[in-house]
Amino acid sequence: MRWLLVPLMPYALVGCGGSVSSTAASRTSTTTPTAATSTSPSTPTTTPPEAIPTNPAVPTPPPPHSQFADRSLQQPRDRCGTPNNPATTVRFPASGGAKLDGALVGRGPIGVVLLHQFPGPMCGWWQYAEYLAQHGFEALLFDFRCFGSSSCPSHDQADPVADVSAAATVLRRSGARKIAVIGASMGGAVAVLAADRMKPSPAAMVDLSGQMDDLSLLGGAASPSLNPGEAAAELHVPSLFVVAQHDAYASLSEMTGIYRRSQPPIKRMIVEPVTSGHGWDMLNGVATTWSPLASIVTGFITAAARR
């Protein structure tokens, strides 16, 4: 059984003259219409198991074309394991002369940038990237500079926002009209920063167990400007925050503080049970392939992109 915490503020558009459709943005799973509201972050509600089949009937679309395609890079199915579907491997430029490696899957109007946790590499996102592709999104998983197969310029300072912006450019040039950013652990902290500083801003941000003090682990020299806690106060992008109870790396109190400081028109916080794990592990199911969180994330992104 998994637990939900619905936001401390109403899950609605604030100052925008309307509310989000409950069938798209505030659904808790494919079988539950709307979550019950709660006024306390310590009072969870429950949801039934996810009804997503182990082997979705919807086939994965062919990999998209990209001007950044690089066939010399290893396919994720060879580098990361199952699923065995092909991807478009890409190498694209970022600030400071960095060259980042990644893979594109799926086709759709919403592009999703997937930000890995420490120590990476991007392989932890491979299965969920395929899930997104099967549900009408175009997904890009990639390695931050100095991780995986990405380059690590010796003179360069860590610039994760520039890395995310470069990844968003790849998706836009591949045809995506809206961009969402999903980060896990270290990537969750980067997602908060990027959602605040990227130009143009993404349509949605999802932070899975973001470790706010984790950015010192990024490649290159540490930058004093990498402070997700301060960035949260300026966050105006629809945002979903998720953390498991008693997470040893990202505390509930820390995530609640980030959630409360953020100022987006739509925001939601979900508290998972301790057995859900950390970061991208929370998307995995127990009795089924995917947890309810997998579809909650796609529903949130879809609703935000329709604004």
List the helices and strands and how they pair.
Elements: E1 2-4, E2 45-47, H1 76-79, E3 88-93, E4 99-105, E5 110-115, H2 126-134, E6 138-142, H3 160-173, E7 178-184, H4 186-197, E8 204-208, H5 228-232, E9 239-244, H6 252-261, E10 267-272, H7 292-305
Helix pairs in contact: 3-4
| Count of the separate structural domains | 1
Radius of gyration: 18 Å
Q: What's the rounded overall pLDDT mean?
A: 79
Q: Strand order, biggest sheet?
A: 3-4-6-5-7-8-9-10
Number of strands: 10
- The top-level CATH class is Alpha Beta
In terms of DSSP E residues, the strand content is 15-25%
CATH superfamily membership: Alpha/Beta hydrolase fold, catalytic domain
Kindly report the CATH topology.
Rossmann fold
Helix content: 10-25%
Largest sheet: 8 strands, mixed
Helix-strand category:
alpha/beta
Task: Return the string of H and E elements.
Answer: EEHEEEHEHEHEHEHEH
What's the total helix number? Answer: 7
- Second rung of CATH, namely the architecture: 3-Layer(aba) Sandwich
Task: Indicate the low-confidence ranges by residue numbers.
Answer: 1-57
Overall form: globular
Quick overview of this protein structure:
With 307 residues, this protein is an alpha/beta fold. The chain is built from seven helices and ten strands. The radius of gyration is 18 Å and the shape is globular.
Q: What can you tell me about this protein's structure?
A:
The chain contains seven helices and ten strands. The model is unreliable at 1-57 (pLDDT under 50). The chain is globular. It has an eight-stranded mixed beta sheet with strand order 3-4-6-5-7-8-9-10, with helices on both faces. A two-stranded antiparallel ribbon has the order 1-2. It has one domain: 3-Layer(aba) Sandwich (Rossmann fold), CATH 3.40.50.1820. It has helices at residues 76-79, 126-134, 160-173, 186-197, 228-232, 252-261, 292-305; strands at 2-4, 45-47, 88-93, 99-105, 110-115, 138-142, 178-184, 204-208, 239-244, 267-272. Helix 4 links the parallel strand 7 (178-184) and strand 8. The longest helix has 14 residues, at 160-173. The chain starts with a strand and ends with a helix. It is α/β, with parallel strands linked by helices and 307 residues long.
